[in-house]
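[Automated response] Your request has been received and processed.

Submitted sequence:
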Amino acid sequence: MGYYRPKQGGAGTWSARLYDPVSKKIARKSIGTADDYTDADDRDVFSYAQAQAKAREWFEEARADFRGEPIRRGPFTVKDAWEAYAEDAERRGMKSLPQTGATVRAHILPAFGNMEVSDLTQYRVEKWHQKLAEAPARRRTKKGADEHAHGEDPITPDVKRARRASANRVLGVLKAMLSFAKRRRLTKASGEAWREVAPFRGTVSARQRFLNPDEAQRLVNACDPEFRLLVQAALLTGARFGELTRIRVSDFNEMSKTIFFELTKNSKPRYVYLTEEGLSFFRSLTAGKRGDQALFLRDSYSNRNRNSEKILRPWRKSEASRPMAEACEAAGLEAMTFHELRHTYASGLVNRGVPLAYVAAQLGHTDTRMVEKHYGHICHSALAEAIDKLAPTWGILDTSNVANLEIKKSG
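Generated structure:
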């Protein structure tokens, strides 16, 4: 910022100068007349604070122009923030972008889409967050049906906890896209409005469903042949459904006794080491197949006609729920999700005394925090057994043949 007083006297003028270290360019701009003799009107005559605000606005535009970035003028809405975030997420190859987009279109844009980001208040976001938690869960509908159809109202504590957890996830998406807009200086909003909204606490389920070996065997036996292979693979590797459906024959390495998962939830490839049982399973599954062939395929039919030619295709993301529910019912087991097979695998390792760091590595976690959070409560028996077996004997007690006598009182 600069102030210049004419030599002949009269009102001074405000000006701004910008040097951009990235582009190495310099620009200057006249802001307007100073309020030396006339009251400021923020149009032709400016106070120092008004001139500063005008200069900052110009700085952003000039810097973007220097760097070849798009210059945004006018109101910046929540919808604009989502479009900017989605464009960057697509550039980064964010795999969950379709699911995130569905969440935004269902819960965020209807409430805030046309609102300017700078108009968001903490109170408004908190009321929306609370309303999300109290609303019944949306149910999956057929194509062309009401996409906003809902199920029953939350009643049980578990259902209420799940709805609050869902509301927290949607709030996280809103915070992520608005924070991105703030970092990129797309909005003048301070950011406190959304940053100060606290998520609900106590949304993590205290109850995890684990199968014992007998239950796992019953479940496997109850599955249809195609789905059975996926269930067996999940119990032998702890992999997620989506990770299993993307692996190929060449990802199995018999020499190193591993399965390689390249496309994972956190985009970090990992090797999972197999037991002899797992090695035997994948050896038989890959025998005689090409290396580029998908390991898990399912029967399908062309033109959705059961009388047409049968073809094989990869499993889709949403196709695990129904066969899993049918298998649980046929096996006489409490309903569970496919993801709980991952919990079963992890709990089996923990109960056998496998170090938590190794369990985390098999599951693809960067550290043991998630393992301790979900499975730490089940390793006490393994801990006690390990202490009895491995702890040293110090020989620091006096030996004695004297034993305490237990005196029984007569009736």
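Summary generated for your ticket: The beta strands are 2-4, 13-20, 25-34, 45-46, 252-253, 258-261, 270-273, 297-301, 310-314. The first helix runs from residue 48 to 66.
If you did not submit this request, please reply to this message.
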